[in-house]
């Protein structure tokens, strides 16, 4: 009997019955379709007749049972062939087989833990079921399906081991004890014979030396381990993967197996487990994942324990620092009450620790107004994330226990303990440093004198520096004219233009430096002359318009009524206006730059000519304004790299204004623009 002998099993329900065979019906095609159906079931399937003899078998069943040829199974009594012995080794008569009850009751039978035997006389536990096959209402056989339960049993075994390891590591256990319990739980849980645990010394990522920290011996241990890690352990650590190898257990004995499981966490290799077994060790995908999980579990345990040890060491170190620090260290809460007071603070302020703890810092050693203005705000800074004010060094006036006041340097660092804001205040007595300020001031004066001498020297060298540079520019101009008359002027003219432009730029930079040197050395002269203010304003505007428009800006010019003329140094007035307009163009983009001139009455009824340069650019903060007119300085350290310039323009303009009897002032709103105001007497002093 075959599966295709039964009409109920045909693969096409709409096809005609096999009764009254159609000569066109291809039995071989029908058989192929049925075989494919059997192979697609995903488990072992075979059929038997009412006498228990095999009528068909799929490929999966043959593989599970270890047979290569269907002929070895077809016609054989399947119970006697694969189901003949119970798990305890006793015989299993066919009459006792519950699967054969299908022929009596006509109902399916399911067994969830049966022992089946392979061709090579090895066995495996299987899930085993029998379903009747009917022909015209009569049971003519049964279809039996089975699956190997070994993988499920191994999965339960792996899960049990992981749970036991988790219980060990989750408790409050010492590292050494935890290592011994873990290696015993893994080795005994998987039924292996002995094992060792190896951890790295030094930098694990650099292949640090492996040290054996724990060993385990099961009931069948044979002492195969050594004092040094074997090559499989080194490979497991280096490659961060489980390594399986065959090894000889003892001389003359059949080989066993060794498995090395890496230990690590977050990509950091910490070591490896090593286990040996007389029986074969299988490392399939499920086992490999389970071993990796165990390695991570132990890695996390070791990292946690090491972190706890480092924390203890940190606390010890902190105590040592507090006790030996040369500066006073005072820990306060957000209400400025003292929590800790180190020996240096006792020596500096003259208060014993027991007397200081619990007191407010302001009532003890620091002025209360300082605390109100600073320390009381630190808690809010910490909560809002605005902690930029912390960590800075500030000078305060502190007070000793005897009432003596002295200068101190203070720095405060925020900390959080259990969600509670605290602050560590570092205080240093700077009385000695203050005494040295006079010497520092003298050294600064000497340096300034040396700098003045340098400026005088540079002023004397101005002619020698300007002469060759002027020659370079002159020759560049002549070459451009000659190139334009030559055969191919377009090749050379652009390069010559670049030479001239860069030379002029260099000349402007050198002029700034030389002008500053002449100002510092007192050699800058004033050459007053009469000129019309409106004319000079429009001349400057015409010169600077291309620079203003380069960044998409618009230049607006206003000359007030009756502004008239003035008697002053025309060149210096122009240079001041050009410097201010250049800066306005530099720091404004897509906005408006305004140049205006008005006449007003100044002190002692003197007429003043007031020039204003306004822009809608980036503006400046108060801190930036404070550095604005310093020589060789700009509003920000990054300004030179981003916008260019030497930082001398404003300082030179400030000096020119003073030489002409006037001044330059500035107002600015950060992000909204700046206004520079030059106020000069209409008649410059002689």
TrEMBL record:
Ranges where the record places region Disordered: 1-26
Enzyme nomenclature, EC number: 2.7.13.3
Protein's name according to its UniProt entry: histidine kinase
GO cellular component terms attached to this protein's record: plasma membrane
UniProt domain PAS: residue ranges: 30-67, 314-369
One MF annotation (Gene Ontology) recorded for this entry: phosphorelay sensor kinase activity
Xref: Pfam families: HATPase_c, HisKA, PAS, PAS_9
């Amino acid at each position: 009997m075959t599966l295709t002998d039964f009409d109920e099993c045909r693969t096409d329900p709409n096809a005609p019955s096999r009764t009254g065979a159609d000569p066109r019906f291809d039995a071989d095609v029908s058989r192929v379709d049925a075989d494919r159906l059997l192979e697609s079931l995903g488990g072992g399937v075979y059929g038997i007749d009412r006498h228990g003899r095999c009528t068909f078998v799929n490929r999966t069943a043959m593989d599970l049972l270890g047979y290569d040829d269907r002929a070895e199974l077809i016609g054989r009594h399947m119970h006697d062939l694969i189901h003949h012995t119970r798990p305890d080794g006793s015989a299993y008569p066919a009459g006792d087989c519950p699967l054969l009850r299908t022929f009596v009751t006509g109902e399916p039978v399911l067994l969830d833990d049966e022992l089946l035997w392979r061709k090579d006389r090895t066995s495996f536990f299987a899930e085993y079921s029998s379903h009747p096959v009917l022909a015209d209402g009569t049971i003519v056989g049964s279809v039996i399906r089975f699956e190997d339960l070994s993988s499920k049993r191994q999965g339960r075994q792996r899960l049990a081991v992981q749970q036991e390891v988790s219980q060990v590591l989750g408790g409050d256990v010492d590292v050494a004890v935890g290592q011994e319990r873990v290696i015993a739980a893994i080795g005994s849980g998987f039924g292996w014979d002995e094992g060792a645990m190896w951890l790295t010394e030094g930098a694990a990522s650099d292949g640090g030396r492996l040290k054996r920290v724990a060993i385990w011996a099961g009931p069948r241990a044979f002492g195969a381990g050594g004092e040094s890690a074997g090559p499989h352990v080194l490979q497991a650590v280096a490659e961060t993967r489980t390594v399986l190898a065959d090894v000889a257990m003892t001389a003359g004995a059949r080989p066993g197996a060794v498995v090395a499981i890496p230990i690590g966490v977050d990509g950091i290799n910490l070591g490896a487990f090593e286990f040996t077994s007389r029986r074969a060790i299988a490392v399939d995908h499920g086992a490999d994942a389970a071993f990796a999980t165990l390695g991570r579990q132990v890695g996390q345990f070791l990292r946690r324990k090491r972190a706890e040890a480092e924390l203890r060491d940190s606390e010890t170190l902190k105590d040592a620092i507090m006790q030996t620090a040369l500066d006073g260290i005072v820990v306060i809460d957000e209400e400025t009450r003292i929590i800790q007071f180190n020996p240096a603070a006792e020596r500096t302020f003259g208060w014993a620790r027991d007397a200081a703890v619990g007191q407010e810092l302001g009532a003890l050693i620091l002025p209360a107004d300082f605390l109100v203005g600073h320390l009381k705000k630190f808690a809010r800074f910490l909560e809002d994330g605005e902690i930029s004010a912390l960590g800075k060094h500030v000078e305060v006036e502190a007070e000793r226990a005897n009432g003596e006041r002295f200068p101190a340097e203070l720095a405060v660092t925020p900390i959080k303990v259990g969600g509670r804001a605290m602050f560590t205040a570092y205080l240093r007595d700077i009385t000695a440093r203050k005494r040295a300020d006079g010497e520092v001031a003298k050294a600064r004066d000497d340096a300034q004198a040396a700098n003045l001498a340098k400026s005088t020297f540079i002023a004397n060298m101005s002619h020698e520096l300007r002469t060759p540079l002027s020659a370079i520019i002159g020759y560049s101009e002549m070459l451009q004219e000659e190139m334009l008359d030559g055969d191919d002027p377009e090749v050379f003219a652009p390069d010559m233009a670049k030479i001239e432009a860069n030379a002029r730029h260099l000349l402007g930079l050198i002029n700034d430096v030389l002008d500053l040197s002449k100002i510092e050395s007192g050699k800058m002269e004033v050459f007053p002359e009469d000129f019309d203010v409106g004319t000079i304003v429009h001349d400057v505007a015409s010169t600077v318009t291309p620079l203003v428009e380069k960044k998409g800006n618009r230049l607006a010019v206003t000359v007030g009524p009756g502004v008239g003329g003035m008697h002053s140094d025309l060149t210096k007035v122009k240079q001041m206006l050009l410097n201010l307009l250049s800066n306005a163009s530099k720091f404004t983009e897509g906005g408006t730059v305004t140049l205006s001139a008005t006449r007003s009455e100044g002190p002692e009824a003197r007429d003043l000519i007031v020039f204003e340069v306004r822009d809608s650019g980036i503006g400046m903060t108060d801190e930036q304004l404070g550095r604005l007119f310093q020589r060789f300085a700009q509003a920000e350290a990054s300004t030179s790299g981003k916008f260019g310039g030497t930082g001398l323009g404003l300082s030179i303009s400030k000096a020119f204004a003073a030489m002409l009897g006037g001044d330059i002032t500035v107002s600015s709103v950060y992000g909204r623009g700046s206004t520079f105001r030059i106020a000069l007497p209409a008649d410059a002093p002689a």
